[in-house]
Amino acid sequence: AKDLAAKVKERSDGRVDITVYGDALLGTWAETNESVIKGDLEMMCEALDDSWDPRIAIGYYMPFIYIDYDAQRELCQPGGLVYNLLNQVTEGLGYRVLGYFAAGVGGVSLTRVPEAPFDPDVPKGIKIRVMALTACRLTYERLGYMVAAIPFGEVYTAIQTGIVDGQQGGGTMQAWGFKDVNSVWLHYKDYIEPNWYAIGEDAWKSLDPIDQKILVDTTQEVQNIQLDYVKEMDEKYMQKLRDYGWTVLIPTDAEWENIATAVRKDVWPELVPLIGKDMLYQLCDHLGVPRF
Q1: What is the pTM of this model?
Q2: What is the maximum alpha-carbon separation in the chain?
């Protein structure tokens, strides 16, 4: 974010001066979302709060649409389907997204390897913590797990005491935080976590079109730098986990496609009340998968 601010200031000859506040100085992620929507803050780099509109999930946890970072980049850059659909939603809330900060490929860390870990039709007999999102719960139930929505701050203790056997969300860097209570990483690639750079509509309209373009172009540049880095980060932490004695398992492309097909067939229709058929059908058509 600081790199983005410095580049935008330089390229706009000081016309656009962004001040970055880190470490939740302006509030939690939910409070930051609300402040941008109300116009009390001009910009944010945050996970987007879908309590304002459940369709925002299209830009956060929509399971099994990206097999890798290149697929995410194609859908989430200006002109990409997710980018366009997300901005259609956020426009009604008074802000727009400019680009995103990729934070890692999702998966699950566990205390043991389940039976047939990449076969969605085999019950796993393992209880895991999932993010408190309908799509997360439905996805991991479809993959054969028992699930519980536990606040992230309580997950370590929950694994330590045996309430759950693992945790979903984030990527390999997040798994490293559980290195002493888990010992298995399954690289499901169910989603790639994005934190979006977004700007309030009033702040956006206050900018000259030249400066609007500078802001979008620079956000995309910073986004792509992070995409190159985060690939290395995933590999780095997978290797750290292996060196620590963990078992790290990665699905083949065929296994991933089989899981994705099961989730798209059985979970995506359950998301119609949240996201709507129109958006989901556009995703199906773009990905070349059957509608439901």
Answers
A1: 0.94
A2: 59
